[in-house]
Amino acid sequence: MAVPPSRLSAIFQIMCGRFAFFSPIPKLANKVGATVPEHASGPRYNVAPGTWITAVRQEEDDSAPLFDTMWWGYRPRWAKGSGNQPINARVETVATNGYFKGAFARHRCLIPADGWYEWVKNTSPKQPHFICRADREPLFFAGIFAERDDGSLGCAVLTEPARGSAADVHDRMPLILDDDSLTHWLAPDITDRETIRRLVGHIDADLIKHWAVSTAVNNPSEGQGEELINPV
């Protein structure tokens, strides 16, 4: 079940809470050395928390990365259904926070996207902006995941202080990994915090671009089409 829109509006004001994903899976699979899945979801221009999303993970040291479906909302099995289901984890504390640190060490994933939405503060109605790479190449958000009570996987997107033009819109942004970091982020044999930080880097801030888009994106139950990312 999706998170009700009434709750979503509060979530979105915190950090990265909505994104678009429409790049072809084969193109992404080639970047991370993953097998193209037999079945893949179609393009989504308004991906909301509390829904099933596409992610990439690696099970064993010598295995190829695989595409999987995860619930956007992180709550590990050991929380026994009583813990929060955050959609984001702050990069500054994810390695030490008791709720996240196990996943940071052993269960890291990539969340493919083509851009994300943030809302300019103090506007009425809230004015969304679409933020992406200036060259429109796909992105990989750094994520963590855990097995949930029902045996499915749930994930959270890591966020960092906003950089480049993204800071015009919001003070946080997803941690977007550069191409050289993708295999290191997925590698299950790399568990040491400092090693991960040494091997993993984010994309150059100069690559980030944004523009205002229609307020139709504000309601995920209504706005889902390709026109959502068009400048207004």
TrEMBL record:
GO biological process terms, semicolon-separated: protein-DNA covalent cross-linking repair; proteolysis
SUPFAM superfamilies: BB1717-like
Signal peptide per UniProt: none
EC code(s) of this entry: 3.4.-.-
Primary enzyme class: hydrolase
Family in the record: Belongs to the SOS response-associated peptidase family.
Protein name as catalogued: Abasic site processing protein
Pfam families (alphabetical): SRAP
Species annotation: Vreelandella subterranea
Superkingdom per UniProt: Bacteria
UniProt keyword terms in alphabetical order: Covalent protein-DNA linkage, DNA damage, DNA-binding, Hydrolase, Lyase, Protease
Coiled-coil regions listed in the entry: none
Keyword Lyase: yes
InterPro entries: SRAP, SRAP-like
One MF annotation (Gene Ontology) recorded for this entry: lyase activity
Key word Acetylation present: no
